[in-house]
Amino acid sequence: MRKLLAAVAVVGALASGSATAQNGAWSYAYVDGVATATQRNDDGRVTATLTCAPPTGDIIITDYTLGRNARRATVAAVRIGAMSVNVPMSIEGRGRNARVVINLPQRPPILAAVQPTDRLSVTVNNTTHTYEEGGPARMREVAYACWGS
User: 20-147 maps to which CATH number?
Assistant: First the structure.
């Protein structure tokens, strides 16, 4: 009984410290001042995250699908709808664990043009990963949660 009560207390504590919403393949959480949207594929594997944390307010796009295609790349094109910006990127990890990390500066201008039907994509070395529907809305949600802190 004590173990059950302890488990309920832990789950309750976790739930009280985070807000979670679902939208298709995207999930959103705000935990300890960090806003995060996570996209998963049909197998449940994380394919991308959008995060933002004060005080810098930078939005960090982490793409787990482009790592192998990003060798020697230093710039990525981030596109929302018809608007695109080229930004510096880095690669973290190696082999299957390689991921592309893109820091968008605080309050990137491409968020101002977001329309409900727009798609979010990242292109590195002529390889594009287009994220699931709702990506721009999730990016806006992450940004506003971060900037409002």
Answer: 2.60.40
